[in-house]
Prior knowledge:
alpha/beta, 132 residues
Amino acid sequence: MSKLLTVFGATGLQGGSLLRYLLKRADVLKIYRLRGVTRNTKKPAAVALEEAGVQMVRADMDDAVSLLSAVAGSNAVFAMTNFWEKGIAELEVAQGKAMADAAAAAGAELIVWSSLPNVTAMSGGKLSRIKN
């Protein structure tokens, strides 16, 4: 049986781009089945991914129970948060921890975390009020 790769943000720019790329990679598809996580499995982007062969599941980053269900059986998880959706750093941290905890509880062998680098350091201090 093939392994399971779960991708958060499946209908967004990052997660959606990753899934569309992986769908073109026969070498990856020989190893992994793909699961996409979104809050709305009925939106057109989710339906299109499902039609392309991605198992789409519903979860909310603010709901730990839904996260556990979303990653159940996953061997690998790609995760990221969306700070700009609510603009609350503490919420973003809590969401990230909840996704990591769910992936660990599922026994994922690999967790890929996508994040921004330290923008303050990269800009030499010019952009010092960036929270993430």
